[in-house]
Amino acid sequence: MFVSRLKKQLMKKPALIILAAGMGSRYGGLKQLDHFGPNGESIIDYSIYDALQAGFGKIVFVIRKSFQERFRSLFDPKLQDKVQVVYVHQELDQLPEGYELPEGRTKPWGTGHAMLAAKDAIDQPFAVINADDYYGRAAYVTLYEFLTTEAITNPCSYCMVGYQLGNTLSDHGSVSRGICQAENNTPYLKNITETHEIRRDAHGAIVHKPNSLDFDLQDDTIVSMNIWGAGPKIMDQSESYFKAFLDQHIKEPKSEFYIPLVISSLIEEKQATIKILESDARWFGVTFAPDKPIVQSKINELIDQGCYPKNLWKD
To answer: Across-strand partners of 193?
Structure first.
């Protein structure tokens, strides 16, 4: 039975799940569809382009149902005949059987819930990313290698791409990051601590919300930027953890079920190993509106360096 499943997975290219259901409240609009490239390309365009170049064979958009028409009009013409595309919806009332949406709940349930929205669209190893983050070509190449080897031979072997904290900070406000610690002398994640209000002070040192951590943060501290790789088994595991989360927090209007919560539970209960695939690339993304011209400038630099054609889908 296992051999049969193994053969089927080997025949399928990895999928890319793009979490794109956010409203962009801090940005002031749907930043996942905003224009950053010279021909109106979004950050998603560059992520998909990099993933296809690396070998991925399926794109799964996690969006709100109200976004679907806009997404399809933008991406279907570009991606037809290039890759299989699936749209799935993340809505507040998508809860496991036996659970009901609390009255007055308006906040999304979080990235773990968003990943679960794609469960029925996934039967192969996959990567999951944020729609508004640029991760760099090397991240997808490294993920593809992992997902077509270790993730297949060991169904409970997952991974994350780790970035150096100094390469992920914003010039326009503090950020939240998952601070990663590895098991001693191994590339495997020991724990991940969600840390808030990280920024540089007037002297260039990295500071964070008091009492978040019992150690100082350095530029080369490894952080999670919510780019993960896993096999389909993580969906069943996540669903189980989501039910446990709802049992405790369903009545809390601002509670969120994050992917790092799933990862931490898997590590603590020894249900999976998480390999850290380190990257020295400079991540960039949009959190605040003033980030936009910076991102546009960085994309233009990459085009000038020959990393991308000027017209992404036509050249």
So the answer is: 179
